[in-house]
Structures are given as structure tokens and as C-alpha cells.
Amino acid sequence: MNKKWWKEAVVYQVYWRSFLDTDGDGYGDLEGVIQKLDYIRDLGADVIWLNPCYGSPDVDNGYDISDYRSVMPKAGTMDTFERLLREVHARGMKLIMDLVVNHTSDRHPWFIESRSSKDNPKRDYYIWRKDKNNWRSYFTPSAWEYDERTGEYYFHSFAVEQPDLNWANPKVREEIYDMMRFWLDKGIDGFRMDVINLLAKQEGFPDSPHPDNISYLGNNPGIHDYLREMHDKVLQHYDVFTVGEIPFVTPEDGVLYVGEDRGELNTLFHFEVLDYIAYWDMGKFKDIQKRWYDGMWGKGWNSQFLNNHDHTRVVTRYGNDKEYRVPSAKCFATLIHTLPGMPYVYQGEEIGMTGVRYESIDDYNDIAMINKYKEAVAAGRDPQATFESLLHLSRDNSRTPMQWNDSANAGFTEGVPWLKVNPNYREINVEQALSDPDSVFYYYQKLIRLRKENEVMVYGSYEPILEDHPQIYAFYRALGSERWLILLNISEQEVLAELPEDAASRLQETLLRNYPEEAGAADEFLLKPYEARIYRC
Ligand code: TEU
Description:
The structure is a single chain. The protein has helices at residues 30-35, 37-43, 78-90, 109-116, 170-184, 223-233, 251-258, 282-296, 314-317, 325-338, 367-378, 383-390, 430-435, 440-453, 456-459, 501-505, and strands at residues 11-14, 47-50, 54-55, 67-71, 94-99, 128-129, 144-147, 152-155, 190-193, 241-245, 267-269, 301-304, 342-346, 461-465, 472-479, 482-489, 495-496, 509-513, 526-527, 532-536. The protein is of the alpha/beta class. Among the domains are: 1-93 and 302-310 and 324-355 and 398-452, TIM Barrel (Alpha-Beta Barrel); 109-155, Alpha-Beta Complex (Oligo-1,6-glucosidase, domain 2); 460-536, Sandwich (Immunoglobulin-like), CATH 2.60.40.1180. It starts with 10 loop residues before the first strand and ends with a strand. Residues 60, 63, 100, 138, 158, 194-195, 245, 247, 271, 274-275, 309-310 line the site of 1-O-alpha-D-glucopyranosyl-D-fructose.
């Protein structure tokens, strides 16, 4: 197995605008991240992924960039950023930035020039056409916006305010490579690459027979040429780590992006779980894990995550955020940290933060949710029913401010938070977690320490058993003579794990469990709701 530092790492995702506000403007900032680096290091994370903090009008919370070479004032200054990078490195950790180059903001100078006239030198920095086709975008009914001034449409995979760059134009590619070097020369340790498989567009933009299936946005011919050029011209000249955010990808395609012989990316996020499984489905989840293991193991590196800034927190989405919040948070943590691939911890996941249900659409900020609401109501759907139908998957579920303590606004800000703090912050907060030896935080700390001390969690094979069981997820990880059994009851019922005879007899040591051991229990393998165990065999 080809060992690499990043294969052994645990990544902590910082959505800085909701992390810690130190200047009272109601937004988190980079100074706040600096103040909490010891907290992140104590958890055991090695790499910090920082969501975009570049100059932006913030239509899509920083994913609409108007100045790639600056830090937006809400976040701080370039000096603050450089101090953050120094402080991260001083703690032996690494920092990767968000590379958002499929599109810019419509207020980027390039777009302002491009839209000004048809013969502007930057016209073909973006994608302009006389007519639109029938494609949707992620956030709007059409992926085309008519521009009066020049009487043409421009293409946008996301919001109207996020015009797609024309990657077929070598000048655009060189501009982006130059910008990447600007940040890499500061010493950052790599990039998380936003929807990086969307860069290549279908030749001629043909109509789709199924316009609601927006997979036509990604994985188009030419994408690997761009990524290989990016690698050859930029990435290979730095000791960096790259993770591609790659929707609509299968394991076979995945290997084309992250194969160790491909000269493109190091690892990827796929969305077969989070984009298609709204509520927990054990069978689908097991199938996805098996296909990705069989498709990628030994060829390319996968990532494991069930939380990020775009998806509802796992205890609310797939677990139980009421009476079993703590065991289910620990159970899913065990799952993510013992499956093959690089685990990501999204801020607040390590203390079992939950999703939210605010009263009105006016309490929400997420442009994706708001656009979906407007589109449905404009089509005549009942506003309240529409609002309620969007609550489960609203991206704001995971964007509420980090809950540090039980003081006003959970200690996140002394101002008015840009997004309301989850009312349960009085019970769920970092201060409480650090004072409770059985907290979710210390469980994550133990999981991460296990990974640091046992290569089997990183490089071990994956062998599922009880594959058809609807509640129990059980699998071996094995490397050399080291063999572990992970046993999870992902359900709200007590379940008897009927292990194969040889399995039970070979269990030597319990390495971690999320319920206390019960001496003389009726049956050793009667698992409590969301019970998780890791055994050494
Ligand atoms: O998200 C991309 C995105 O929306 C899909 O790739 C993915 O399927 C996701 O799971 C949505 O269901 C990225 C950023 O993470 C997001 O915050 C931005 O809004 C978006 O790109 C546009 O930059």
C-alpha cells in the first residue's frame, strides 16, 4: 500500500462564518479560528479545511468570488489569514483552502468586462450563447440568464450571480493557475476543489431529454485534460494535498480522478449518500460502501463524511437527535472513522450538534433553499407546505453558529448572529462537552487517537459480514496480523448481533464502545440502540 501523510490524516472543516466572531459583527472570522486552534488540535485533527474567505458579495456564502486574491472584510485581512496559516503550522497541522473555479461572482471584474460588450477581450472568459437550452441549474429553473446589454444568455451551474468560467479558454486556465500559485506560495497545504468535475461543458449544449437530472453539468469530455494540466503546471510543483468535490461520480469514474497513476487529484468526495439518501437506508448505504471499496481500493483514495456545510447534521438527518442523540452521534462517528477512506469532521459534529427547524423562511439564509421555495410558490404550491418540505435538507441545518458555551448566542458572538443560534445550545456546547468524560467530543478524540496508533484503520482491508442485516452494520478491517471487528447497531431498537461462530470466538479485546460494559449481561451481543463497538480479534 502506497503510504502518504494525507491518507493517515483526519480533516476538520471550519465554516468560519459560523465558527467564532471576535469583532462583534455577527459573523465568525479568521481571528476566531486562530483562537480555537488548540481546541481543534486537542480533538486530534491534522488538517483544517477552510471554507472560502476570498472577496465575495456573499450571495452564496463565499462561493461567489469577486476577488480571488483578497480576504473578505467579514473574515478579516490578509494579515489575519497569514497569521492563521503560521499558527496552524506552528501546531504541526496543515491548512487547505477551498478552490472555487467553476464559476465566479457576477461582480468579479472579469465578468463585468465580459458582459460589457461582445467584443470585449474577456467576453470568452465566460460562456455566452444566443439561445438557451433546456438545462436546469442547481439553484434555478434555467442554467441560462439573459443579459439585455448584449442580447445573449450566459451560463451558470448555480445561482444567477455565479456565472460559469469558460475553461475551454486557455487564458482562463492560466489566470486560475496563477491564482493557485499565489496561495500555494504563501504556504497553504492544498485545496478542496469545489465541484471540480463541472469545469468541462458538453459540446454545443444539446437539450437534455431529462432536464431535471442535472448530471449533464459534470464529468464531461475534457475534464481530465484540464485536471492533468492543472496538476502538471501547478500542483506537482508543491507538496500539497487535493480533494475534489465530485457530484454525479461512480467508483469507476472516481478512479479516473484520483487514481494514483493519473496525475490529477489525491482523493474525492462523492455524493451517492448525501445527494440521494434523504433518510437513513442501511441497505443502500452498505451497497454504496461495497461498490466504492471494490472500485477504488488499491487504486485511489476515498473520503468518508456524513456532515458538511451543505448537508443536515447526521444526528438529525440519519440518527436520532432526541433521546439517542449522544449514542447515535458516537455510532455514526465510529462508522465514518472505521470505514476505509479519509474521515472529515465538520465543526460541531464532534459535540453532537443538531439540525434546526425555524419558524419561517425569513429565518433562513441558504440561497438554494430560498430559490427552491420561491420557485415552488411561484408554481402555485402552498407556501407553508413548501416551507415544511424544505426543512429536512436545508443547508442552514448545518450552518447555525458553533455552540461554545451556554452564554448568550452560545458564546459565538456578542453581536447579532448572521443566522440564529440553535436554541438547544444551552445543553449542547463545547464547554459542557469538555467537562463531561462521556461526551461525544472525547469519543471522537479516542477514535482519532486509535487511528493515529493503528495503521489498520487507515490501510486495512474492508470485509463486511451480516451484509443483509437491516439494523446491524458489521465489518472487519485487517492489515497483516492485525484484525478488527466493527459492530454497529444503527437503529433505535435493541438488536441481538448473531455473529458467525468463528467471529465471536475470536474476539480478544474491546478497543472502544459507546455504552459502558455491562458485567454479566444477559447476552453479550445484545446491542443497545445505536450501540457501537470496536474489537481487536
Ligand atoms: O456544492 C456543490 C453542490 O451543491 C453539489 O456538488 C453537491 O451535490 C452537494 O452535496 C449539494 O447537494 C458546492 C459548495 O459546497 C456549496 O456550498 C456551493 O453552494 C456550491 O458548490 C456552488 O459553489
